[in-house]
Amino acid sequence: MHPKYVYAFEEGDGKNTQLLGGKGANLCEMTQIGLNVPPGFVITAAAGRTSGDTPSVPSGVMTEVRSHMHRLEQKVGKAFGSPTNPLLVSVRSGAAMSMPGMMDTILNLGLNHATLPGLLQQTKNERFGYDAYRRFIHLFGKVALGVPDALFDEQCEAIKRDAGVKADAGLRASHLRDLSARFLHVVQQQTGQPFPEDVYEQLAMAITAVFRSWTGTRAVAYRREFHITPTMANGTAVNVVAMVFGNMGDDCATGVGFTRNPGTGANEMYGEYLVNAQGEDVVAGLRTPKPVQEMQREMPELYRQLVALRNTLEAHYHEVQEYEYTIEQGTLYCLQTRTGKMNAVARVRTAVEMVHEGLISKEQALLRVNPSELEQLLHPCLDLQGAHPPVAQGLPASPGAASGQCVFDADRAEILGRSGVKVILVREETKPEDIHGFFAAQGILTSRGGKTSHAAVVARGMGKACVAGAEGLHIETKTRLATGDGVTLHEGDVITIDGSTGHVYLGEMPMIPPHFSDELQTLLTWADDVAGLEVLANADTPEAATQAVQYGAMGIGLCRTERMFNASDRLPLMVEMILASTTEERQQALDKLLPIQRDDFMQMFRVMSPRPVTVRLLDPPMHEFLPSAQQLLDDIAALHEYRVAVKGQTTAFQALGVSLPDDAPCEELITSVIAKKQQMLRKVQELSEVNPMLGHRGVRLGITYPAIYEMQIRAILEATARCLQDGIQVWPEIMVPQVITARELVRVKQSVEALQQHIETQYRRKLVCKFGSMIETVRACLQADTLAEVAEFFSFGTNDLTQATFSFSREDAESKFLPLYTASQLLPDNPFEVLDVEGMGTLMQMAVAKGRQTNPLLKVGICGEHGGHPASIRFCSQIGLNYVSCSAPRVPVARLAAAHATLLESR
Ligand code: PEP
Ligand code: MG
Predict the structure, then answer these.
(1) What is the pLDDT averaged over residues 714-738?
(2) How far is the CA of 850 from the centre of ligand 2 (A)?
(3) Which atom number of ligand 1 is nearest to the Cα of residue 558?
């Protein structure tokens, strides 16, 4: 006995999205809560999987389908294939995860030469009947028979040209009849077969095609981009639904609505509709629809019903819904609902407001916002001060601002985008086929379509800026031009779009950093209340520290001191220190660096007070502060040539008996510069290493040049003492990089203790400073128990630990073979972005356990890039870390991810 493959809307379980798909489950649920849904049934995703790659649906499935079709005929009082009273159906895809526009749908199925007259007779509307027919042939031809879209478009354009009209709406019944005939001919020519007349054959082919669209290029690319795994959605279900028509006259309409504003989150009616149109016209952006508020005037009773529908949906689902509806001759039908795709601003606001309205709990609100989405909120917006006026205006379809070169097709956008060029995809309207262009573009601009058009919905889902329906622009893909009121945009011209206002500007506009909304602050405060992990920031300058505090960092988990040496006033001193040939010379340079470092730390401590600041002692190899050997060789060669020229000039002046001008370059000076460069070159050659990442760096430097670490330790402790003198609370922590043995730690700790004693006496203050180790070598993990006898805390440097675990050097791996490894699934992800739980995770788990064996109070955190990655944070929480530390802009993401980790673990 095979499982049941088909469920009527009255019987399907509205919670079982894995089996029925999101759309199917919701159609069942809406039917069962009494909403006016056209009758229909769902063929399960499991049925699709049994079909596999077979060319048609298994007969067992079709037997069930036939019996449900008979029940459907009874419900609507029409007959499938009847020449007098034909039942037409839509065949729609719908997987467990929403993938808008990525899979196929066929409408008006059941039309043929025999049933068409019945439809014409029933509706007494020839134009409508032929329109339905040509739409069906087109969609069926494209989806089920694989006929290229362009062949139909060509015919349509030809008919419009002959009829002297621009839009489809201008075509009369006779034109549409001719068009249907032409479409049938196209199908015959392309497939070598007549268009299928048998309605059950049509149905079986359509069901097969919709199941197949799960493995279509668009759907596969979408799942890859959004990391939709088979456990999240395994195949699509197919919904067969009785057709209702929004295009039978002026008492008909079709629309898309959101229960709240998906751009701002405001609790208001939101959406668009078109009178006398079919749903695809709204979504595809073929006609620019009207805002739903106009319906209040135009169809007041239906508007009232629509408000009631929206209220019922929200009250039932307790979640913002995106719904589609059709009004057929004065009756409102709800065709589908799903969780509304919103941008992060709206997601956060609606989640927080629904808690205040008593609809959901704080925990539900937290889990409703995906941590990675918060990055959208950190997008800049335009600085309009002194801005030139916009050159075009469209609808504000997806907030945020973006600049880039205009590109007129998705393929080119992808090529340029991948090579690092910022592009704006400019299209008349977008289609699902353009999805790869979206991924590569900074933003999207269309000249047609509304706020619920394909471009708008997809851009919002991706958090990309979008201006839709900029009707003043005439976009010609062939000539790659967009012309508007006094403006011509060529491919490659840089424009800026503002998805929050709908404005389009020429050139790259300045941007201002984003700000935290009150709702986001509230949500993140709730997150901090539940999170088990603390979130710290990686910050090396007072400016970055200030930003970290604004983003809610609870301290600094990694201050990379070497970055402090790169500023122009410090680098020469650092170079002097490196070039020193004696201990005394080195100490002199370090003495000059000490007050600078101390000031840096004082500033950082002030900004962060009273939060802890973990300072890492110098880590990178010293040659990183010097120019490259090649650069020095080039400089020296140029200086030699210059010296010859200067010498020639001096000789010429002497021959002429003229004295040299006072500011003339002098040969001796050039000679001394050459000598300095040569000295530097010798040092560079001396310091050169085969593999610097595994070479003379980290604590190895501190051991071989103890004076460097001493200077840094002194600077940290003196800064602490001075801040305390000023009444500022500071909690410094000193961290040693690249450790492999406890003996290295002991050596550095002795130095800390000696200096601390000395400074405490000097400043007459007791200092508290924690001492810890980075864990970024495999040996450190293996020796964690002995390290923890010396260290009070561990911080996993997972950037280096990933290199060490894999024996990969990051740059080589990412540029040479990792993309192939991930594409061919030898590795699930890039381990430098996503923590490798299987491999490195085992090492980490072992290090935590060993460390706490000898030091139960050991504090453990992570400060590699993974510290800002939500799934990696979840793992850190599972293995009992105390904190994560990440770059300042990722702090909000990490705060929410930390809360998710706790909430999901407690489930
Ligand atoms: C690390 O290795 O993870 C780390 C934080 O150190 P860096 O990236 O500076 O090597
Ligand atoms: Mg490191």
Answers:
(1) 98
(2) 21
(3) 5
Q: Is 702 in the pocket of ligand 1 (CB under 6 A)?
A: no
Angstrom CA distances, 93 to 7, 56, 103, 107, stand at 15, 16, 6, 11
Block residue for tokens 């030469």: 113
Stretch 357-378: mean pLDDT: 91
Give the residue, by CA position, lying nearest to ligand 1 atom 1.
Answer: 797
Asked if the model's pLDDT at residue 883 lies above 90, the reply is yes
Query: What pLDDT, on the 0 to 100 scale, is given for residue 312?
Result: 95
Residue nearest to atom 4 of ligand 1 (CA): 797
Is the CB of 798 within 6 Å of ligand 1?
yes
User: Taking the CB of residue 478, how many other CB atoms lie within 10 A of it?
Assistant: 6
Strands 503-506 and 534-538, by their bridges, are unpaired
Average pLDDT score over the chain: 91
- Residue 562 CB less than 6 A away from ligand 1: no
pLDDT in tens, 98-139: 887 789 899 999 999 999 999 999 888 999 999 999 999 999
Residue 556 CA to its chain's centroid (Å): 26
> Does the N-terminal peptide bond of residue 148 adopt cis geometry, omega within 30 degrees of 0?
no
C-alpha span between 30 and 22 (Å, rounded): 12
pLDDT tier for residue 57 given thresholds of 50, 70 and 90: confident
In short, whether 882's Cβ falls inside 6 Å of ligand 1 is no
Q: What is the pLDDT of residues 768-809, one digit of tens each?
A: 999 999 999 999 999 999 999 999 999 999 999 999 999 998
CA distance 659 to 85: 111
Active site residues: 454, 863
The reported pLDDT for the residue numbered 439 is 86
Q: Look at residue 29 and give its three-state secondary structure.
A: helix
What is the band of 2 on the pLDDT scale with cuts at 50, 70, 90?
A: confident
H/E run at residue 878: helix 870-878
Res 779: pLDDT: 98
Chain-centroid distance of CA 829 in Å reads 16
Cα 653 to Cα 3, 291, 646, 648, 658: the distances in Å are 103, 82, 11, 9, 5
pLDDT in tens, 844-864: 999 999 999 999 999 999 999
**Please, where are the H alpha helices in 441-481?**
454-462
Q: Using CA atoms in the order 49, 54, 57, 59, what is the torsion angle rounded to 10 degrees?
A: -110
Indicate which atom in ligand 1 lies nearest the CA of residue 737.
Answer: 6
**Residue 286 in this model has a pLDDT that exceeds 70:** no
pLDDT category at 449 given cuts 50, 70, 90 is confident
| Whether residue 867 has its Cβ less than 6 Å from ligand 1 | no
Ligand 1 pocket mutation pick from 800, 869, 887 by most atoms within 8 angstroms of CB: 800
Exposure pattern of 52-63 as b/e (b: 16+ CB <10 Å)?
eeeeebeeebbe
Share of the chain above pLDDT 70, in %: 97
3-state SS class at 409: coil
Kindly list the distances between the CA atom of residue 587 and the CA atoms of 574, 577, 581, 705, in Å, as whole numbers in the listed order.
11, 8, 11, 10
Give residues whose Cβ lies within 5 Å of ion ligand 2: 776, 797, 800
**Ligand 1 probe mutation, 562, 774, 805, most atoms within 8 A of CB:** 774
Task: Assess contact for 403 and 422: CB atoms under 8 A.
Answer: yes
Lowest mean pLDDT among 446-460, 542-556, 589-603: 446-460
Distance 15 CA to ligand 1 centre (A): 45
Alpha helices in 359-451 (DSSP H): 362-368, 410-418, 435-440
Confidence of residue 623 (pLDDT cuts 50, 70, 90): confident
Look at residue 861 and give its three-state secondary structure.
strand
Residue 865 alpha carbon, nearest atom of ligand 1 = 3
Ligand 1 atom showing the smallest separation from residue 864 Cα: 3
Angle at 465 between CA 463 and CA 468, to 5 degrees: 120
